[in-house]
Design goal:
Elements (H helix, E strand, L loop, with lengths): L1 E4 L14 H12 L7 H7 L3 E2 L12 E2 L17 H9 L4 E7 L6 H13 L3 E7 L10 E11 L4 E5 L8 E5 H6 L11 E7 L3
Helix pairs in contact: 1-2
Length: 200
């Protein structure tokens, strides 16, 4: 059994409503000693959409739309990382991201290697997965950061979780998390985002 951790470690933060991705980005900025940007600012630039009943919880103006179909998702909308990269460039943040789609992940061993190799390099790894694979009551997509990975026959990950109802760090089976990236849950194909340095 081999454990690989992100260094330096994360400092946990808690998300605003439907802002798991903006909050996860804040975790990354804080860990790297980069300037923090408000979750609402990040969310706005990632096309954040909230339920009308949560609109009053935000200081700035956000999109508030009533759900029209089962396929409609609240939260941020950045299917390939292009909006995140645009955000980094706009704010002169020396980071870039690349998404590895679920359909590109050959198997769990392949996913574990991607994660381990990036953690060794000090790169941040973020999962976007459908949470019902962990808890059947949770019918939504969510962002999690990989704090460390345990490499064995069935790899485990300790994830950092910005959710206000959850422990900030908890362990999960990597296979379950990868399975939750499939589009079969709500037609959206999720995946793994890797964050690396870029020159500015």
């Amino acid at each position: 059994m081999k454990r690989i951790k992100i260094k330096p470690p994360y400092i946990a933060l808690t998300q605003q409503r439907l802002c798991c991705v903006p909050c996860a980005i804040q975790w990354i900025l804080l860990r790297r000693g980069l300037k923090l940007v408000e979750q609402e600012t990040i969310g706005r630039e990632l096309d954040l959409i909230v339920r009308p009943k949560y609109k009053h919880l935000f200081i700035s103006k956000v999109k508030a739309i009533k759900r029209k179909t089962k396929k409609f998702c609240y939260g941020t909308h950045d299917t390939d990382g292009s909006k995140m990269n645009k955000f980094f460039r706009k704010h002169k943040i020396p980071l870039k991201t690349k998404k590895i789609f679920y359909s590109e992940i050959k198997n769990i061993k392949y996913a574990a290697k991607i994660i381990a190799d990036n953690l060794k390099k000090g790169n941040d790894v973020m999962f976007i997965t459908y949470m019902s694979v962990i808890d059947s009551k949770k019918k939504f997509g969510h962002a999690l950061l990989v704090n460390d990975i345990v490499l064995n026959k069935k790899p485990k990950v300790v994830v950092g979780d910005p959710d206000f109802f959850e422990k900030k760090f908890w362990q999960a089976d990597l296979g379950k998390i990868i399975r939750g990236m499939s589009e079969k849950f709500d037609t959206e194909e999720r995946g793994i985002f890797v964050f690396t340095k870029r020159k500015i």
